[in-house]
């Protein structure tokens, strides 16, 4: 798992968190062991919509509860199959390891994803 995420801000100012890149199933297991709320994005190399989602995910990572993670669907086939990913980008909100929301219909706005994370953070 590659994570260039600096520590979160402890004050009221903005945080500088960024999405975590998962490289294998072990990374995914470690992520779930340390975070209750996760937005997981499945991407592929060369996916234009996936590339256009990168800045959106940066905004979500900095402004929403939980952690944002991306995984290349072609590199982690077991995880891709587990979530029945049929198109990219596919985004899944996980609460305590269970899928509670899914977006698999193309580009998503940051506010849509932040709202989904905030909704499931309070449950």
From TrEMBL:
SUPFAM superfamilies membership: Thioredoxin-like
Which InterPro entries does the entry mention? Thioredoxin-like_sf, Thioredoxin_domain
Span list, region Disordered: 1-24
Query: Which residues belong to any copy of the Thioredoxin domain?
Result: 1-122
Q: Which Pfam families match?
A: Thioredoxin
Q: What is this protein called?
A: Thioredoxin family protein
Q: Which GO terms describe its molecular function?
A: protein-disulfide reductase activity
Gene Ontology cellular-component terms listed: cytoplasm
């Amino acid at each position: 798992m590659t994570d260039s995420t600096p520590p979160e801000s402890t004050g009221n100012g903005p945080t500088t968190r960024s999405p975590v890149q998962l490289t294998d199933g072990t990374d995914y297991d470690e992520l779930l062991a340390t975070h209750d709320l996760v937005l997981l994005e499945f991407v592929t190399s060369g996916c234009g919509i996936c590339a256009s989602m990168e800045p959106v995910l940066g905004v979500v990572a900095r402004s929403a509860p939980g952690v944002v993670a991306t995984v290349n669907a072609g590199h982690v086939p077991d995880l891709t199959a587990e979530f029945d990913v049929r198109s990219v980008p596919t985004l899944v909100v996980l609460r305590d390891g269970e899928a509670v929301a899914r977006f698999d219909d193309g580009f998503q706005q940051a506010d849509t994803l932040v709202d989904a994370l905030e909704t499931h953070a309070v449950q």
